[in-house]
Amino acid sequence: CGGEVSSSAGRITSPGYPRYYTSGLRCQYKIRRPDPGTCTVELDFRVFDVGTSAGCSEDYLQMPDQTRLCGSQTIAKALDYSAIGSDVMTLTFVTDSIGAGRGFDIVVRQLPNSCSILPPPPSCDVTISDERSVIHSPNYPDDYPADALCVYTIKRLDSSVCQLRVDFLDFDLEPAQDCGSDFVQLEKNGKRHCGVRAPPTSVLTFDGDVLRMVFRSDSVSSRRGFEARIRQLRNSCYRPIGPANPRLCGTYSDQSAVLQSENFPLLYPANTDCEYRIMRHGPQVCQLELNMVHFDLASDNRAACDRDYLEVKGTRYCGNRDGQRVLVDFPRNKNEIVLNFKTDSYQQLSGFRIEAKQLTSGCPPAENKTCDATFGSETFQIISPGYQSGSYPDNSDCSYTVKKSTFQVCALQVKFYTFDLEQSEDCAKDYLEIGEQKICGRVEYDSIRTFEFLEDETTIKFHSDSFKNGAGFFLLLEQKTC
């Protein structure tokens, strides 16, 4: 999807137009300057029907000046190459997982001989690389000028910084519905702020080496503007749990299965480090029987098994154990048993052939526990299920409902005493979701993060899959008033 206009006139349309656009789109439309005498580009919105959302955070068309358009648009727009600072203007069309609307049909006109002989107005753009700084609107505390467009670029201090905290100390912008006139917009969440109520403290995550904030004013009225304190948070990066995973030698979920060392009955390879995962066949299964039909692993000390061994729930097996049977309990809070097979480089033998059978006889009735909870006090704790035992259970889904302790509350502060969940891309496996932000991996001890709390209640969600678990979390939460 996308397109390019490099002549004096052209047209850009959403994918599939005039049919409704689909979900999950990210399309770029480039407008290239045809010659040095062209400075002005006119966009004539013949049709613009893009799903409406607060701050245009779901479906939107992002303009070259980083402003976002959604809903309906009928007024033509004029763009200036000198304001963009490039000979290429980029418009980006983004849709969420739902998709709703006919999209757009925009006529592009590049006006020849449209460059002014006057020098360009002074730029109000600011670039910051300090750990702490204060930024403000142009002329603050006097009224900001009309038609201002300021981009505040924060460069990441070093690799220990992954997050930025923004506190608004003073805030007075022209109020308007959907903040369509004068506004401050944080690039990370796309939400616009206007009026006289200062936005709550925000903690933003660096995706790359820069974060941006945009201030925009129209030509109607001006006010005092804003002043904000920004701080780059050291030691705010997530770290994955533990070293790289061992190689997976096999996964078994049938009630009966056969496990064999690599190359069996020939010699197994040197320096093997792999896992055999036995997945619980059903909720009625409580034990695993391992019948070692053949078992021969190199060992100098069968009691210690410090060379080649198969480890089952903390117990190592080595040497010759033909015919031995081992009975292992499935953990109540897990749906798998992991067998670790490790060998050194000194001596290799024939390995093992093990018949595994999942048993249902003599199992206690299944427990039916819920981890949901509701909180309404100013300060409270949230602890992951199974925290005292050292790990949370598989396949958990917990909902923690937080109700405002008073109507003046506008933010929720979270202090992380312990946070250790399975790390995954986009936190798709185990995660804690607060304010539509998923958190996984590890968070530094005593870290503090603040989230918006605008509705009467909010829900914090915890989810775990059936694969790998961390220690869980211990959080102290405090409701903050404005």
UniProtKB/TrEMBL annotation:
UniProt cross-references to Pfam families, sorted A to Z: CUB (PF00431)
Annotated GO CC locations: extracellular space
InterPro entries recorded: CUB_dom (IPR000859), Sperma_CUB_dom_sf (IPR035914)
Stretches of the chain forming a coiled coil according to its record: none
GO molecular function per UniProt: serine-type endopeptidase activity
Keywords for the protein's UniProt record, in alphabetical order: Disulfide bond
Segments passing through the bilayer: none
Disulphide-bonded residues: 371-398
All residue ranges annotated as the CUB domain in the record: 1-111, 124-233, 248-359, 371-480
Keyword Disulfide bond: yes
Name by which UniProt lists this protein: CUB domain-containing protein
Lineage: Eukaryota, Metazoa, Ecdysozoa, Arthropoda, Chelicerata
